[in-house]
Amino acid sequence: MQKYSGFGLLKHSLTHHENWQRVWRNPKPKKKYDVIIVGGGGHGLATAYYLAKVHNITNVAVVEKGYLGGGNTARNTTIVRSNYLWDEAALLYEHAMKLWEGMSQDLNYNVMFSQRGVLNLGHTLQDMRDIQRRVNANRLNGIDSEALDTQGVQEIVPILNCSSSARYPILGASWQPRAGVARHDAVAWGYARAADAMGVDLIQQCEVNDIVTEDGAAIGVNTKQHGAIYGDRIGCVVAGNSGVLAKMAGFHLPIESHPLQALVSEPIRPILDTVVMSNQVHGYISQSDKGDLVIGAGIDGYNGYGQRGSYSTIEHTLQAIVEMFPMFSRVRMNRQWGGIVDTCPDACPIISDTPVENLFFNCGWGTGGFKATPGSGHVFAATLAKGEANELAKPFSMFRFHNGALIDEHGAAGVAH
Ligand code: FAD
Ligand code: PYC
C-alpha cells in the first residue's frame, strides 16, 4: 500500500481528479431503437443489460431525466430478501436473490452483496402466527427461512432489547440467513457499465415528456432535450413517476405515490452485523460498512412528489429504534432524505403490457423494489424481447386489478404502505 504524508495526501486530493476515463459513453440519441427504456434506475439499467446479454438486443436506449441511479436506487436502504408469502411473489424475489448471488461475478463489478441475514421481528401472538405461516410457505418454495423464539433472536443480536418488560416485547422473528444488503450505487454503475460495453446507449439529462403514439400503438417518446426518439417497443421503469408517464399515454395505473424517508447516523464502530426489521414497533436498522446506522420505517401517509418527508415520521422511526436498541439513544443522526415510491393496492409490482400496444410498464415496487432489481430487469427484458409477459411476470399484469387476481403481500412488505 502506498503511504502519503499529510502534505502528500493534500497534493493528491487536489491533483488526482483529472483525466478520469469515462466508465460509459455519453452518446447522442439515434433517431430509432429496437427498445427504448424510460428510467435509468437499477431496474431500467438491469433491463437494458439483460436485453443485450440474454436476448442479444443491443439497439437499446435508456433515457434518464437526471443521472443514472439518482432516483430511488440512490435513496434506498439496500435490504435484499426473498421471504414473501405467496408463490407468485416468492418465486419472483427468489429469482432475484439467485441473480444477486452471482451478480458481482456476472458484471465483473463488486456490488458488495453481503448476506448477513435479515430478522423480521414478531411482537404479538398474531405476528408469530403470521411468521410461522410465512416461514412454512417459504420453505415449501425452497427459500431459506426459519422461525426463531426470543432466545434465538437474542443470540443473533445480543444488543437488542429482548426483555419481557419492553413496551412491545419481542416474541420471536423470522430469519432469512441468505438475505442482506448491497451497495446501491454499485448496482446501477455495474449494470450501466456492462450494458454500455454491449452497445446500449445511456442517455442522461433527457426527460421524456410524452409518449408518441400512432393508431393506438406507441412508436416512440418525446423528450425535452432531444425531441422525438422512436422505438419498436417502449418500457417505462420510472419509480415515483409511473402515474405521470401512464397519464402521458392516456391511461390510469392503480398507483399512489408517497414519500419514503431514511436516515443515517454518524459512523460508529461495528456493532450490528445483521439487519433487524420490526413491522409492529415499526422501524428497521442495519449498519453500513462505513459504520453508519442505516434507519427507516414506513411511508409518509400523504401523496406527493417531493423527495423529502415530514418530521413526525422521523421522530416515530427513531422512537421505534430506541425502543428496540436503548443503547443507540445517544448516537447522533447525520443525514435524512426521502424518495418517492409508487405503491399498488396489493403491495405487489406491475410488470405488464398496457392498453397501448408496444408500451410496457414495470412499476409499483413500493417500498421494496431494490431487492428485486436483477430479477425485475431479467423478467422485464424477456417481456420486452418477446412482446408478452414472461412466465414469472405474468401474475403481475396491471389487468389483475380488473379480474381480482390480487397478490396481497402487505404482511411481507416489511415496511408499512
Ligand atoms: P429509480 O431508481 O427511482 O429509477 C427510476 C428513474 O426514472 C429515476 O432515475 C428517474 O429520474 C427516472 N425518470 C422518472 N421520470 C422520468 C421521465 N419522465 N423521463 C426520464 N426519466 C425519468 N427497496 C428494497 O428492496 N429494500 C430497501 O431497503 C429499500 N429501502 C428504501 C428506502 C427508501 C428511503 C426508499 C425511497 C425506497 C426504498 N426501497 C427499498 C425501494 C426501492 O428503492 C425502489 O423500489 C427501487 O429502487 C426502484 O428502482 P427503480 O430502478 O425502478 O427506480
Ligand atoms: O422491502 O425489505 C424491504 C425494505 C426494507 C426497507 C425498505 N424496504
From TrEMBL:
Locations listed in the record: Cytoplasm
Q: List each copy of the Rhodanese domain by range.
A: 35-79
- Major location (coarse): cytoplasm
Which Enzyme Commission number(s) are on file for it? 1.5.3.24
Sorted alphabetically, the Gene Ontology cellular component annotations on this record are: cytoplasm
UniProt xrefs under InterPro entries:
FAD-dep_OxRdtase (IPR006076), FAD/NAD-bd_sf (IPR036188), Rhodanese-like_dom (IPR001763), SoxB (IPR006278)
The answer to whether keyword Nucleotide-binding applies is yes
Per the similarity annotation, which family is this?
Belongs to the SoxB family.
* Protein name, per record: Sarcosine oxidase subunit beta
Q: What is the lineage of its organism?
A: Bacteria, Pseudomonadati, Pseudomonadota, Gammaproteobacteria, Pseudomonadales
